[in-house]
Structures are given as structure tokens and as C-alpha cells.
Amino acid sequence: MQHFVTGIFQSFSMCGLRNKLVHMLAFRPPQATYELRLREQKKQRVNKKQRYYSFDDSGYFNLQNNSEQQLTLTNDQQYLHRRRKTVRNPELYPEYDFIKIPNKKIHLDEEIVVRSDTCKVTSYFLNQNNNQQIASVHLDRNSDYVILFSHGNACDLGTMIDKLIKLVSYTKTNVFAYEYSGYGQSEGKINDLSIIRNIQVAYNFLIHQLGYKPTQIIVYGYSIGSGPSVTLSSNPQFPIGGLIIESGFSSGLRVISNKIEDTPYYDIFPNIDRIQFIRCPIFIMHGANDKIISDDHAKQLAQKSSNLYELWIPDNVGHSGIDTDIQYRKSYFQKLKEFIDYIALQNDNIPDLINKNTAKSHEVTQCKHYYQTKLF
Fold it and tell me: Which residues form a coiled coil (predicted)?
């Protein structure tokens, strides 16, 4: 199987068709579940627009329940009235409302404007060098820190928005999520190279438009999102504060065959080779019962990491659902909060943290890969 799959990739690459093969086989964009609409001025707004509150359906975090089983949630209203982050060039990046559109699969019969009492929800279209735009959403709780979130494969920002709002609520941290080319409301065609360029555009937007410092950015990659997250974090041009990998993989072809030892030149997202260059703290989590990507991938990544914060493999959790599992969801949010607090502590106590966290140069290795000729 290994030689068959790698042979196909090599053959297509020699014919200049690698990206087309990746586009057809590796990615599954769903039907869009949301829209972005240019935000009206306050005086133009009408009351008929509905509000969408992100809440905990099970009541597990309900403050009226046993306090020993809950996270401490404070009143977030005070944070919403502070000065929030706005883009430096609003004429280039106007604000959009995030609209959940009717979807029979989730029994949503009418449009809903996504808002939250926890954070300000603002969307943007980010401009790429190819004149195509990708969609994004900024959940601003007025924190100094932000999670740069890369979503999974068969989903878009609309299906992830509830999780993103909960991340803000329980970690007290801002969240910025971007969408891959060809997904949801983002323009362009999807392949691994385009995703890597997408996250670079998102990172630069956080720095140059929203004013975050590099070490205030915590990169979070879920599933296939681990690919662009590791690639960005291992690039010396994009220093960050920390990296979170949830249900990630060691490389694309290793998901198909676990017998691959040396990464093929044309592999997709060779995380196992690139993670060794990352110098910021790395938090890896992976369900022990993951049937899509084995937890062996997490163990391999942890073994290769030079600055591993923690490897957490909860039992009886699959490819997704750590944040909703009744047994582990409390630990999930607590561990994330502790990791973010650790990053904040480093920012407070290490004067030259940006240099300390800057990824190692790839010139120290003999490892060669397709990306080195196409991206770097």
C-alpha cells in the first residue's frame, strides 16, 4: 500500500498534477452553513435580527449545578465594554456579520445573526496575493491573547462557531478562525499549498491589522488543521507563543499507511519532520479511541517535539468530541486555560521570548520536501 500510494503521488507530481490529485482525494468541503453580510451602521440596524447564543446544551457547566464539577465562569459583560481590537485599515477590511443560514440537517429554519454575551463576533474577508479572499471570524473578549484556529476537513466556520464561542467563554481568550480556500465563503481551490498560504494570511492579519504580538498568538490545529498549524509554527518567519494540536497526524500518507518510515518527497503535511523545528511550547491531545487517525500519530509527534508541554490521550474519546465528552470536557477546557496561562507567564517573564520561540532554520537538516521548493 505504501509503495502504491507514494507511487501515484510521485507519478502525478512528475506530470505536474500533484495539486490536482490532492484536491480530489484529500479534502471534502461541505455545503456552506453560513454567510457573511456587510455590517450595517448602528443607526441603520433594526430589531428584527435575531440573536444566537452559544450555550451548553447539557447544562454541565450550568452554574446552578454542583459547583465542584464546573469551571468558574465570571460575568463577561464587563469585558465587552472595554476597547476592542479593530482593524488598522477598515477601508480594506470592512466588518461583516456572521449569519447562520437555514439548514434542515440541524433543524434550523431561519437565518440567525451570530452574537454572544461572551465576546464580540466580527467577520472579515482576508485578501490574498492572488486577489482571492478567504473568510474569517474574530471572537473578541478583549484578551491580550488570541487562538489562531485551523478547522477540520468536512466542516466550515458555520459548523465550528459554537465550539469557537465556547473556547472564548472557558479560556477567557480571543479566538480567530479562518477558512480554507474553497470552503464555505472562501474563494479559490483547495489543496495543501493553498491552506498553508491561508494560515499565513491569517497570521499576518492578526499582526498587522488587529495588532497582536507574535508571542500572543496560540496556534490551534484540529485534525487536518494540524498541517497548516505545524507548517506555520515551524517557519522562522512566523514566531508564535504556543502550539496546540488536537487529533493531528504525523503526515498525510501515514494516515493511509502506518508502515512509512521515511517521509516521501511528495507527502502532504509532513508534520513529523517539521515539528522538530518548533521551539515554542507544544500541547498535543488525541482521543485514544480515534478510528480515523490513530493516537500513534500523537505519540510520534510528541516524541519528535523539542519543547513538549504535554501529551494528553484521554480514553474512550474518538476523533472529535473531547470538548463535549461528559467525562473529559471539564479537563479539556481547564488544560487549555492552563496552557494559555503558561504562555502568558512566559510573555511576562522572558524578555526576548520572540527570539526564543522562533523556529529553527531548516538548513540544519538533510530532509527535503516538496514544500521547500514551493513555499520557502
Answer: none
| Catalytic-role residue among 150, 194, 223, 226 | 223
CATH number for 357: 3.40.50.1820
Which of 134, 101, 110 shows the shortest CA–CA distance to 34? 101
**More confident call, 361 vs 219:** 219
> Is 160 a domain residue?
yes
Q: In the chain, how many domains are there?
A: 1
In a domain, 71, yes or no: no
Q: Would residue 75 count as lying in a domain?
A: no
Which residue range is the domain that position 316 belongs to? Answer: 117-374
Give me the catalytic one of 290, 305, 323, 369.
Answer: 290
Q: What is the pLDDT of residues 150-207, one digit of tens each?
A: 999 989 999 999 999 999 999 999 999 999 999 999 999 888 999 999 999 999 999 9
Q: Which of 319, 325, 331, 341 is catalytic?
A: 319
Residue 86 lies in a domain: no
β-pair type (133-140, 146-150): unpaired
pLDDT (0 to 100) of residue 88: 95
* 137: CB partners within 8 A, 6+ apart: 98, 121, 122, 123, 124, 157, 161, 164, 176, 177
Confidence (pLDDT) at 72: 46
pLDDT at 185: 96
Tell me, yes or no, if 208 is annotated catalytic: no
Whether residue 319 lies in the annotated active site: yes
